[in-house]
Amino acid sequence: MASKAEPEALDFLGQRLDCTQCECHLKVNCQLGYACVHDRYAPRIDRFFHLNPGWAKRYLDHPYFETRAVAAKYVEVFKLPSLLNDPDETVRRQVAARLPINSKHLKALIGDPHREVRIRVAERLKPEDLTLLIADPDYYVRQIVAKRLPPGQLVPMLHDPDSEVRRTVASRIAPRWLEALIRDPEPKVRLEVARRLDPGRLKAMSQDPDWRVRYEVACRLDHQELSAMQQDPEPAVRELVHQRLTNPDALPQAC
Q: Domain locations in the chain?
């Protein structure tokens, strides 16, 4: 049964529901206040289609967007392309969640005007197709792309305008490209670079303006280059350098 906390059973126009006037009356498994296709409360619509999935295709053009969105969750996949241009992003997002990943129709949603739809597309596209979203206007879409794109295809994202996207790129891109981010304006990006850059190339970061980056450099820098950091302005960095120079065979716990 429905929870007592659920709202009153009304249609999407705010009118009371009358089962005797419904096309479903006595034909399907439904219950006013619990499972009803004409209710405005989405969970009750969902219960209706869960109990009667074969009826979903009848409601793909219903005037209420929640009804169309829930119907899209249950309808046969081959019916989904008819909703690609639905006026509501909730419906299109549901479509993007169900279309096959190799479907041309899923790719058709790459240019959807709503970010939530494109986020769902970015989460589901085959990795080799994600290059189509590298220049998406939304940072979070690009963040997903940076997390899923094959590392060899991340080079065009090295200078993404968002620092979190660049940080993700720095954590995944092939090491030979990391030097392009050594002077990135965001310390978190440079810290990621310091964690992955070949120790033989870390000297270029030993005077980084952020002490956290220099600390990471001091953890990984080759011993022959380490003495140059003994006069670092940050006490924690100097202490780390001293520990490593004093006991070259031991890696400090802080690293």
A: 1-75, 198-255
